[in-house]
Task: structure prediction
Amino acid sequence: MNRKFFLNLASLVISGLIVSAGPCMAQNPIIKGYADAHMKIWNGRMYVSAGKDSSPEAKGFSMPYWSIFSSADLVNWTLEVTIDPKDTYLGPGYGGCWATDIASYKGKYYFYFSNKNEATGVLRADLPRGPYSDVLKKPLIPADLSVNHEYDPTLFTDDDGLHYIIFGRDGQLGKDLIHYQIARLNEDMISLAEKPHDLLTDKPFGFGDKNRARDHQYFHKYQGTYYLSCAGAYMTSDHLYGPFKNERHTGQNGHSSFCEYNGQWYHMYEWTCEPFGIRSYRQVSITYLHYRDNGDMVDDVNFLQSSSVAKEGIYFKTGVGNYSAAWDKIEAEWFFKRVGVLVKKECPEGGFEIQNIHNNDFLNFPNVKNLGTNCTVNFRVSSANPAGGSIEIRQDSESGALLGKCNISNSGSSTTYQTISCQLKNSAAVANLFLVFKGGKDELCRLNWFSFSK
Result:
């Protein structure tokens, strides 16, 4: 069996696992053979739009169609729809289905897509899973709109409900001070309400330089600050149109998007698909994203991919939304869902923790595997509350079967930590655990991590 046949066969097997009808089971990578993934949340599900890399044998970036996947737990992913360029103004057989993004307004869904690095089109549907139709039958943002490149769209909705499209390539060769561009959309979502503005940065060529322009941008907002990113690099601004300043890095390269779901932040990124090691055949993975108290973004390195197996995150293949009682500890900031006023903040003991925990707040950790029967749970907590509080461990919901209860005493201050324990009444099955906090008024405690023992 020759190498070319093997690679093509492997490519078909990988694609088949992902695009088969119905749900598919995956951790990291969540999608193989795809790239440029963007996330959106609707009706309690995460939707991911991405372009399909054709084959490990393809020369250059050959991408024959787009797909939209969705998940409610970030573990089981369902292919919702495949969008063929023959159903757009591009026509059949087109191989330049580059980055995409989706937006929603007044019950309609809009799929914005790249025509290679030349232009951006738009489709419309009644549901996020489609079917989508080409409403303009021409580009929304044509190639000759400006001296920039009109591709790689990000759709952003500001706090006032206005919609914007961000696109282009910063630092275009030979064009000083040309950056990504932003334009407000009309209410029809298929026309521009203004002439595009340059998203200026404090560097002459944005994330690129005079010898190398950079594409794969993304745009989002966190606690009143605008984030303009390029793969894992990013800059911030207090103003929508910038200037964006102070380039930093999350820790992971590759075309990225950032999103909040169930109170948790995620960083989705693409990188070379293993075992092929070919940059034009990629895979999509996801990690937890944390914000430092000063607003800096930090990837959780435990869930990152690396070109070196020795440097790969210890839980990269496990992926988000999965946990094991056999781990040394489960960090509180890895929760799948939070409800209440509790927040993720930096921890004096290092890393991150959950603070501002009040009565009836709860955290959800589904898919906890390897639990022993009637095991002991240990919590690393601090508490400055004179009355202390308690942590109820419940199954399947915040009001589900009570497996155990740990009492929290005053540790003296919110920066003085103690480890408390209690025995559970549980069976040795995969658990969907809810940590429900009980007590009086004010902040009850802060939670750094928890673990299990026999």
Residues 1-25 have pLDDT under 50 and may be disordered.
